[in-house]
Amino acid sequence: MDVTIFGTGYVGLVTGVCLAEVGNNVLCIDIDPEKIDLLNSGGVPIYEPGLEEMIKNNRDAGRLQFSTDAEAGVKHGLFQFIAVGTPPDEDGSADLQYVIAVARTIAEHMDSYRILVDKSTVPVGTADAVADNVREVLASRGAAIAFDVVSNPEFLKEGAAIEDFMRPDRIIVGTEDPRTAELLRALYAPFNRSHDRLMLMDIRSAELTKYASNAMLATKISFMNELSNIAEAVGADIDKVRVGMGSDPRIGYQFIYPGIGYGGSCFPKDVRALEQTARKLGYDPQLLHAVEAVNFRQKEVLFEKVRAHFDDDLKGRTIAIWGLSFKPNTDDMREASSRVLMEALWDAGAQVRAYDPVAMDETRRIYGDRPDLALAPDAMSALDNADTLAIVTEWSEFRSPNFETIKRTLKSPVIFDGRNVLDGNLARAAGLTYISIGRSALTPD
User: Fold this and answer.
1) Among the options 266, 321, 373, 422, which is catalytic?
2) Would the pTM of this model clear 0.90, i.e. be above it?
């Protein structure tokens, strides 16, 4: 099939390349000429495992193209995927200006039936707004052209997005039109072979399903972080509590790991947007507000532990940080816990030496060159001249370090583990103080 994708960000790129991978002819459109030039020259503007190679293979096969020509994009595809950003407004609600701009662009250039597919994460009622804008533009043109608007939310995890798209656990399609439903079923047939994962529902239910899913996952994280603070206060071990809880099949083990808060482009934005949707309708979503409040507070926990250990005297000290991205296998630092920690350390007069396997360029882009930030070439080099170590992102390469080397290198032999990834007993045996989340500190005998 011929498919057009508007937006070459995270969702648009992954959607486009995966649809091309199964044989569709995909044209990706973006208004940023530098991004399109980068993609056409073989570069990739984001980090996602496997994405660069898949883009190259499908470009070489002629199934995947990139362009700034919106009119050509509208002419190209029966399916017009809208995968542009929906950044938060000042009040936390989703800003739909880019979604609406794409819808109006499609309406300006379409000359035959098109299916507009909302892939961006959007509030309930967005499909109606898209349809109203298309009708308005078509009326101004004096054109009577049929179209449909479909809600088809994405459920991609950064770091595993290709696997999620190629082998989805669900494909949500919101439409009231049986013909449109069958066309979407045909488009997604290659991803739906072993058993039927496609779920048809009304448009508003599809739109809410995306927000509801992310809000539920965020709730589990904040609940576990709340428990971790209680566990630490009463002298319990949150990791043992987690195992006891997770053994109940009604709870399960996923998303109940304690830490220093969630970040990224989805959970914070979507929880706030859903909260604002409710408030605009006159409903007070107390749980959603609490989820976000707990997360905001949890991002400050690691700094508070560092400050307390050094008796509120951080001026002139150097803190080594392992992990800058908001989660492993991505370079995304949007609302990352590392940013909260680093900025608090700088405010307290400390220096930072940091390392991340893939997010170094993103760190430079955000913070530029500053005298209180040094980016190290590897994890162990980040410890040079550092007083202590803080682990912020649970990258696999951090899980089994040489504790003896850490002990010899640090001026103050203490590790602050914000993700509970290390074996604290091994750290203590090497002569290190080990301070983690939801557990009592371990000090050398």
Assistant:
1) 266
2) yes
